[in-house]
Design goal:
This protein has one domain: 3-Layer(aba) Sandwich (NADH Oxidase). 39% of the residues lie in helices and 17% in strands. The protein contains eight helices and six strands; from the N terminus they run H-H-E-H-H-H-E-E-E-H-E-H-E-H. The model has no long low-confidence stretch (mean pLDDT 94). 25% of the residues are buried. It starts with 15 loop residues before the first helix and ends in a 5-residue tail after the last helix.
Length: 225
């Protein structure tokens, strides 16, 4: 990438009251987000998906390499292929691969190898990490090193989930293991690897979610002053 020109920062400093109000409003909004496994088939406007991905793509990344690619899928045929391949891997996971302690940890959530949401949700967003860049040149392709790929894509996924929730949509973070079938089904290049599969839509009527709690701040935050 060429060296960027420097421009003035677009930043408006808020008053302390405004800062507190906005911080609390953002917390209240995200605090209501829950993982949903039962979706309504109701259509979701593509504009909402596009805006959320645009938000995710604005995330910071190592050396500004932006080592991600987002594939938005609404095709019923492709969603069916993804479901079939994911369920094949999940059957192996629940039946043979997962250690007993992992299955015990999952048991309260009521999950198993059945993944109907992969077809019912109107959109699937598949996030790929770009392990290295591919530059086209006269001699063919040249690899370009990317930096902090896992961290960068993780931040972008956080942006994406927040943006989708802010748009009034429900999501699920799904990681069938292994996920190589996603690259094959979606015809992604060799430098990209699947990172996260996110069904997106509206919750089914009457959907229920596990009664879980987040750890208190005293368990997850240390203050040194």
């Amino acid at each position: 990438m060429p060296d960027p020109a420097f421009v003035p920062l677009d930043f408006r400093r808020l008053s302390p009251d405004q800062q507190t109000a906005q911080a609390n409003a953002f917390y209240r909004m995200l605090h209501t987000r829950r993982t949903v496994r039962d979706f309504a088939p109701d259509p979701v406007p593509f504009e909402l998906i596009e805006t959320a991905i645009r938000t995710a793509a604005s995330a910071p990344s190592g050396a500004n390499r932006q080592p991600w690619h987002f594939v938005a899928v609404s095709s019923p045929e492709i969603k069916e292929k993804i479901r079939r391949a994911a369920e094949a891997e999940e059957r192996e996971f629940y039946g043979h691969r997962a250690p007993e302690e992992w299955l015990e940890a999952l048991q309260p959530l009521g999950t198993d190898w059945h993944k109907p949401f992969l077809q019912i949700a109107p959109w699937l967003i598949v996030v790929f990490r770009e392990d290295y860049g591919l530059l086209e040149n006269a001699g063919g392709e040249t690899k370009e090193k990317n930096y902090y790929v896992m961290e960068s894509v993780g931040i972008a996924c956080g942006f994406l989930l927040a943006a989708l929730h802010a748009a009034g949509l429900a999501t699920l973070t799904h990681t069938p293991s292994p996920m190589g079938f996603l690259a094959q089904i979606l015809s992604r290049p060799k430098n990209e690897k699947p990172y996260l599969l996110i069904p997106v839509g509206y919750p089914a009527v009457g959907v229920q979610v596990p009664n879980i709690e987040k750890k208190p701040l005293s368990k997850v935050m240390t203050v040194i002053s």
